[in-house]
Design brief:
mainly beta; Cathepsin D, subunit A, domain 1; two-stranded parallel sheet; 1 helix; 3% helix; globular
Length: 149
């Protein structure tokens, strides 16, 4: 952590977040300081080219109820990373870079796309995304309320 930048908010073990460039106004995210990166439940991922750049088209799943709501999204491909999943398996994941909103704060994060169908939370907020922005109070949830777009 940069000693000259102090986090500007305290977040709980779960928070409501928004991903405005993906037209996701609200999704519950599990805050996980043990996870390095963020992950979003995405299926039907297709790579395509637009204006000389590689892009991804995917279905983002927003809720845990069955059937869950989903949204068709497009984002520029930022990277392809090897990530160790919660089961210990190493997998290759596409990564996008997009703004995130928690409470009244907005900043850029990298998010890996993966199948989180078996997970309770469709979004995982890892420690790299929180660095210089938030401190975690694990005994509480939803301290920031709904995102203020």
């Amino acid at each position: 952590m940069n000693p000259h930048i102090a986090p500007n908010m305290i977040i709980g073990a779960c928070e409501w977040i928004a991903l405005p460039e993906l037209s996701i106004e609200r999704i519950r995210a599990r805050v996980d300081t043990g996870a390095k990166s963020c992950a979003l439940h995405a299926t039907d991922i297709e790579k395509f080219e637009r204006d000389g750049d590689l892009w991804l088209r995917f279905k983002a799943h927003l809720g845990h109820a069955r059937p869950s709501s989903s949204r068709l999204c497009e984002a520029r491909l930022a990277d392809e990373r090897r990530v160790r999943s919660t089961s210990g398996d190493v997998e290759s994941r596409f990564t996008i870079r997009t703004p995130i909103i928690i409470g009244h704060s907005r900043w850029m994060v990298d998010i890996t796309l993966t199948d989180r169908a078996q997970m309770r939370y469709r979004m995982l907020l890892g420690r790299t995304a929180m660095e210089n922005h938030a401190l975690v109070y694990p005994a509480r949830t939803f301290l920031q309320g709904k995102p203020r777009l």
